[in-house]
Amino acid sequence: MDERTNYYHLTRDEWRSFYRNGIAPLSDTELQQIKGFNDQISLQDVQEIYIPLTHLIHIYMKEYDSLHLSKGLFMQEFAPPAPFIIGVAGSVAVGKSTTARLLQMMLSRTFKRRNVQLITTDGFLYPTDELIKRDILDKKGFPESYDMERLLNFLNAVKNGEDDLKIPKYSHEIYDIIPDEFELITQPDILIVEGINVLQLPANQQIYVSDFFDFSVFVDAEPDLIESWYLERFEALLNLAKDDKTNYYYEYANGPRDAALGFAKKIWQDVNLKNLEQFILPTRSRADVVIHKTNNHTIDEISLRKF
Ligand SMILES: Nc1ncnc2c1ncn2[C@@H]1O[C@H](COP(=O)(O)OP(=O)(O)O)[C@@H](O)[C@H]1O
Ligand SMILES: CC(C)(COP(=O)(O)O)[C@@H](O)C(=O)NCCC(=O)O
């Protein structure tokens, strides 16, 4: 079956007409706070794309809460509330982090009493030493480069209301897991989990990461465009690395630009594009919503899963 048949395909104009009064648009100051490094998100996107998306997520949340409550009544026992988990998937450099941060901001503003936290699955990559040991350093981002069991255990613990969960931190600057640094997850009401692998089927587990998701978004674009965003981000990272000897990109930043860009193009072709084609794109049809972007990160189509 063609994966597109199970979705409503909505143009930007159709999608934005689903806007309802009730959620105030972000102010410029709030927008500045969430802009990632190198981002140029527009207030128009917030208004036209993210406000309707927040409404849709609210519908899913109400259904989730109601089902949870009814299940408790059926079991004749109190079922403590469990966090609502949202997955954000897509290629390396397609804009997942940006989308996830925007969602976090929108949800926190809209549901003021709910604690909305965000994690990225980078932290579950094996450290470089371990990747070398497993001979998969050139497969960073591929399914085998993540400790999926640890991610699944973490999600299970969050759903079961465990407090003060520690997850490892990844740094793009050192291109590795930061030793002995952790992020603390403290009983969120809503948790956003962002990563290239979140809709994948783990090789050796019976449970999928997405079994823990109550809503999911896939950020999509043509691979040639994503490559250009990857290269732009790479150049921006180089500019940051120029005076920082601890930065993974320091040597490239201070050498000839052509050679550095040639290196980045090769990484895109050999690693990230392969990963996109083999392991990430096949998961698109599992998302509840697909946000499609075109030139300049403009969102031109939203697909909403029918069933
Ligand atoms: N809406 C947007 N407008 C402009 N630039 C964007 C937007 N979304 C992402 N970017 C840029 O695209 C690049 C990749 O985005 P990022 O969120 O880091 O991707 P990912 O988390 O998928 O790797 C970054 O340089 C980022 O600044
Ligand atoms: C850490 C990643 C696997 C995941 O990236 P993300 O989309 O979260 O930025 C990726 O940024 C990465 O390092 N890929 C390996 C090849 C490379 O781009 O250097």
Automatic annotation (TrEMBL):
Entry keywords, A to Z: ATP-binding, Coenzyme A biosynthesis, Cytoplasm, Kinase, Nucleotide-binding, Transferase
Protein's cellular compartments: Cytoplasm
Gene3D superfamilies recorded: P-loop containing nucleotide triphosphate hydrolases (3.40.50.300)
Top class in the EC scheme: transferase
A biological process from GO: coenzyme A biosynthetic process
NCBIfam families in UniProt: panK_bact (TIGR00554)
Family listed: Belongs to the prokaryotic pantothenate kinase family.
Full protein name: Pantothenate kinase
